[in-house]
Amino acid sequence: MILYKSKVTASMYALISISFWGVSFVSAKAVLGKLDPYSLLVFRFGIGVLFLLLLILLQRHRLFISLRFFPHLLILGTLGVFVHQVLQATALLTINASSAGWLISLSPVFTVILSILFLHEKMSLTRAIGMSLAIIGVLLVTSTRSGQSLHFALNLGFLLMVLSTLNWAVYSVLLKSLKIPYSPIVVTFYMSLIGLILTIPFIIRNRGWERLSLLNETEWAHLIFLGVFVSGIAYWYWGKALEVLEASKVSMFLYLEPIATLIAAVLLLHEKVLFISVAGGIIIIMGVVIVNGQLVPMLFSNDRNKRQ
Fold first, then answer.
1. Please, are residues 159 and 153 in contact by the beta-carbon 8 Å criterion?
2. Is the Cβ–Cβ distance between 40 and 28 less than 8 Å?
3. Domain segments of the chain as ranges
4. Given 37, 167, 224, 266, which residue has the most CB atoms within 10 angstroms?
5. Which is it for the CA torsion 136, 16, 84, 272, positive or negative?
């Protein structure tokens, strides 16, 4: 019963994380009109680091860590924070927020591929069909309608978003497998700090701080949301979820992220939703559900069996 409750709690942490991340595409898109991608990341990481440090001090966590785990944190911070966020922020310069949200659903597919390559899991016919569907969905999402014909519009932004999903799959697997023996909030703090340090040279080069005065109240609200809830709480909660659940099971919650993105994009950015994009997004989700289909009913099956 205790294990069941812990898994339900971990699932809630993952759900909260993907909800914040889903809205993050909209907030980033809103601020990128005034700030370049690197300046946005510096301010976002800076706010997140200060928020996490405050929480660590309030909760009286031990801040110091052994130097033997620094290489682990450096890899995680570089991949999961710096590289991942740079790819997404740059991609949002050329694609809309809702398309970015749909494409992030590919991450669970990449998680399965990594499992096949490095964990020697077998490729079944069901998985092959699921991945094929997901690819078809991506082709639909990355296409635009002009007149009566459908034109493929794959550009750098879409490629960067797909790369970010692959990068996130690698990050999630590493975060789970490295097993750093510290609280998730402490691990998240150091990863965010590393991401901040890596982006500082770019803001110095671009003199990004000079454009802060251009932000209005709404854009400041988006920036604070990105720092506190997306760079802080969401990463922290994702780590807490991975403490209990397997990486492949946690990644399944990414199926729901496009829904949060789509709703936020329509309400806050007034983006027009094309039928072809929604259809492609649904096909992506169908594909990734099929790829991981055998995992879905197992999420809580062991716990139910124990209670019976």
1. no
2. yes
3. 2-307
4. 37
5. positive
